[in-house]
Write a structure and sequence with these properties.
368 residues, seven-stranded mixed sheet, globular
Length: 368
């Protein structure tokens, strides 16, 4: 059972859609597929423009840094992926300043506002919606609203790689939202997407930058249902299939079920003695702090057939992360929390009594 926060399992109907014959990307047949997929993607984003790139999510992050920073960037670092925005700026010789917090601590609205007021040269803010290194949720929408009050021309770029398709994101004041195929969209890695505001498009077109990641060229081509470079045809076909499914089921239904599953999992693990790591948990995953992380994960994988993720850098061996992104069945999440309680018994830490499953069920099916 794969419950890592990316890659997520690819549903059978998506695998079947991608297993059909290969078609050329410069054909009317593929243009029709691209058009349908693009329209569905715009619905999911609830933004006026979107582009698809044949890259990982990091490629889309770099594309946003290159194309939307004309002067100086402000990056928010509360984990591995917030740190990455700063590293991209450094690699591209783009001036930036960084707000750094512990990996369990979201940035405050006040800290961002203070940084913006202190430095008028900042014209782009880069932040995670969900920082998956620790599983926290930044107050992105509140930050964006306050920054726009100071200067509406400052671009707000949000990494939604582990947020889009998980929860409803208010994009009113966001200019770019990045995501990747292997998270809530349940595809193999290799496709990145960026939702864009009209203001972001105008800025991109005013000063085109880059070659492969030149978003002005991509916007121009993708509005005509093609791509500047070779399209990730198979992945785009798969994306169309999963978006059709999500729309049919109802995006709001997906967000409601994911939130309920995340809450039920957190409550179940707290009930058997665990500490939830982030101060503001995201619904994409449940992150637990425990010095027994490595031992628990080893038992889960070898004895109970559950694969969850550990931590990185200074959190290696100290946290584990359970995925809630995508079409996770309730029984899969229930199996996982039950297996974790059994693993505690195997380690001689806590006698198994079924508490985790009882608490999970009472929260998951509350009022039903």
């Amino acid at each position: 059972m794969l419950l890592t926060p990316g890659p997520t399992p690819v549903p059978e109907f998506v695998r079947k859609a991608m297993s059909d014959i290969t078609i050329h990307h410069r054909t009317v047949e593929f243009e029709a597929i691209f058009k349908n997929t693009r329209e569905l993607l715009l619905e999911l984003y609830d933004m006026p423009e979107a582009v698809m790139l044949a890259s990982s999510g990091t490629g889309a992050m770099e594309a946003c840094v290159i194309n939307l920073t004309h002067k100086k960037a402000l990056t928010v670092n509360s984990g591995k992926f917030g740190e990455r925005f700063g590293k991209i700026c450094a690699a591209q010789n783009i001036e930036y300043t960084e707000i750094k917090n512990e990996w369990n601590t979201p940035v405050s609205v006040e800290a961002v506002v203070e940084a913006i007021k202190a430095d008028p040269s900042i014209d782009a803010v880069f932040i995670q919606i969900c920082e998956s290194a620790g599983g926290l949720r930044h107050p992105v929408e509140l930050i964006a609203a306050e920054v726009k009050k100071i200067n509406k021309d400052i671009m707000i770029i949000a990494d939604g790689i582990t947020a889009l398709g998980v929860e409803k994101i208010d994009t009113t004041n966001l200019d770019a939202v990045v995501t990747g195929s292997q998270k809530a969209l349940m595809l193999p890695p290799g496709l990145a997407m960026i939702g864009l505001s009209n203001e972001a498009v105008a800025k991109i077109e005013s000063k085109p930058k880059g070659y492969y990641f030149n978003l002005a060229i991509e916007i121009k081509n993708q509005r005509k249902n093609t791509t500047a470079w070779t399209a990730a045809t198979t992945l785009i076909i798969g994306l169309g299939a999963i978006l059709e499914k999500l729309k049919s089921d109802g995006f709001e239904n997906l967000y409601t079920k994911t939130a309920a599953r995340a809450n039920a999992t957190r409550e179940a693990l707290k009930a058997i003695g665990f500490e939830i790591y982030p101060k503001t948990p995201a619904d994409a995953m449940t992150t637990v702090y425990t010095e027994q992380s490595s031992a628990i994960r080893k038992i889960l994988e070898n004895k109970y057939n559950v694969n969850i993720a550990g931590g990185q850098d200074h959190l290696a061996g100290k946290i584990f992360r359970i995925n809630h992104m995508g079409l996770v069945e309730d029984f899969e999440a229930s199996w996982a929390v039950n297996a974790i309680e059994l693993a505690l018994d195997d380690l001689g830490i806590r006698t198994f009594d079924g508490t985790a499953n009882r608490v999970f069920a009472s929260n998951m099916f509350k009022g039903k």
